[in-house]
Design brief:
The protein is an alpha+beta fold and 326 residues long. It has eleven helices and 13 strands.
Length: 326
Amino acid sequence: MTNIRNKQRPFRMLKYLYENTDENHPVSTPELVKIFQAEDAHASRKTVKDDIDVLIGEGFDIVTVRSTQNSFFLANRKFEIPEIKLLIDAVSSSRFINKEKSAALIEKLTGMVSKAQAEKIRRHLYTADRVKADNRQIYYTVDAITDAINEGKKISFQYFEYNGAKERILRREGAKYYVSPHALVWDDNHYYMLGFSDDRQRMVNYRVDRMCNTEMTEEAAVPMPAGFDMEEYVQHQFRMFAGEEVEVVLECRNDMMKYIVDQFGEDVETRKASDETFFAKVSVADSPTFYGWVFPFEGKVKIAKPQEIRDKYMAMVRAAAEQIKE
């Protein structure tokens, strides 16, 4: 048994260094000797040095801190601490990933760093009570879609919505949808599948968290239509551009610039209107989606031109006010 442990020692050495050491938490030669002797494996200063040399020879970035009693730590990992934090933030803030899966993924991510670093991350981890998806089929759905895209196959699925009692109701009385998937798009905390619909004979998109019983079929997928521009489609479907496109001039307070840039990008055309405001020329759809985006700014973003769009917006505001009075 001891011989087996001795043969395993370099692998166990790597595991210990991976889990327990970093630049602020090196482990000394005497500590490693003590650890392996406690596990009934032959260990000495020489065997520690030999094992470290083997691991370094295999390409592992193990740093030696020179002293009377050399210390060691694993330096180069696949992810740095800031990268892990960014990934954790993305997982915890995503509505697409439910609470249980978020917790499991965060645990796996913190396992990519040392225990001391993981504990440091956890102490600073705060997750707001965000709305999370409750569809546990999502991961199987994404897997089926990805496999179908890679293998050039159609998928079948059912699609649901909610009624007034918050009950899930299958659309089309549960009839299956048949679609040739071509892409997955993550937008505004929702995951969408983009593909060519057999029924509609055009490109469509579906919320992944509303799909269920998704399966890859044996039927070959329909190719993406010739000349189809995926980027343009995404812009029109997910960025307030679905509908008849119009050019609109917005008059905005200076402190609204961040929202204009967030929505339309840094290339948006702007010019000074007054000391307190600026004009922004944007292309949007003449649609409730655009008007609904303007409304929450409470007059800090106004539709200046064209008058037709301004009048439509004001009519919607008046209609909403009348409904509130009623």
